[in-house]
Amino acid sequence: MQGSEFRGLAEAVTRTYGDDPWYFLRELAQNSRDAGARAIRVEAQAAPGGSETIVFADDGRGMTLAHARRFLFRLHASDKGGDPAAAGRYGVGFWTVLRFGPSLIRIESRHGHESWAVELDAGLAARASDCRRDAPGTTVTLVRAARSDSPNEFARQVGEGLRAYCRYLRRNDRRGSPLSLLFGNC
What angle (nearest 5°) sits at the alpha carbon of residue 32, between those of residues 95 and 96? Predict the structure, then answer.
C-alpha cells in the first residue's frame, strides 16, 4: 500500500476520535505510559510565518524497528491486547497525529542497544534517518506550516491540549503514580 493510500485510511479511521485536532497528544501520552515511561517532555517550537513543531519525547523502554514495523506502522495492529493495564490496544491511536496536519513526522526510538529513526513526509513516504537518542525511549516530532498567529499562540494551544488530555494520566505501575509531563516552548 502506498503512503498516501495508507494516510487516507488512517485519517478516515481516526475521525472517529472527534474533531479536536489536539486529541493526538493524549494518544502519544498513552503510548508513552504503556511503554513504561516515568516522564514525558513536550516542546512547542514556532517560527513566525514559518513552521510549527511539536517534539514529544518519553523515557519509556522504546521499541525496536521490527516492533515498529509490526505494530506502529500498521493500522489495527497492537501488542497491548493481552495487557489489561494498557491504555491503548486498538492499533489506531498513534495515527491521530495526522490531525495536526504534519508535513513531516519524525520517529526515533532506542530500545536496549538498538536505535533507529524514520522520517515520513506529507504523503507518508518513509526514509531512514539517524537516531539522536542516547537513552531508551521514543521521540515523535511533528512539523507543519504555521497556522497560529504567533509562536506564543501556538505554545498556548499546545499547552491547552496537554491540560485537556494529559492532566490525569498515570504511570502504568502498581501504584498508578503520576506520569511527569514537562512542557516548554522554544
Answer: 15
54 alpha carbon, distance to own chain's centre: 9
Mean pLDDT of the chain: 84
Query: Residue 74: CA atoms inside 13 Å, Cβ hemisphere, count?
Result: 13
Is the Cβ–Cβ distance between 46 and 155 less than 8 Å? Answer: yes
| Residue 20 φ/ψ, nearest 5 degrees | -70, 120
Q: Where are the alpha helices (DSSP H) in the chain?
A: 3-14, 24-34, 65-67, 151-166
**C-alpha cell, 13:** 479511521
Separation CA 77–CA 84 (nearest Å) = 16
CB 170 within 8 A of CB 178: yes
Cα separations in angstroms, 82 against 26, 49, 74, 127, 184:
21, 46, 18, 32, 35
pLDDT tens digits for 126-138? 899 999 999 999 9
Q: Please, what's the largest Cα pairwise distance for the chain?
A: 46
Number of DSSP helices (H) and strands (E) in the chain, helices first: 4, 7
What is the model's pTM?
0.86
3-class secondary structure, 55 = strand
**Is beta strand 51-58 parallel, antiparallel or unpaired with respect to 104-111?**
unpaired
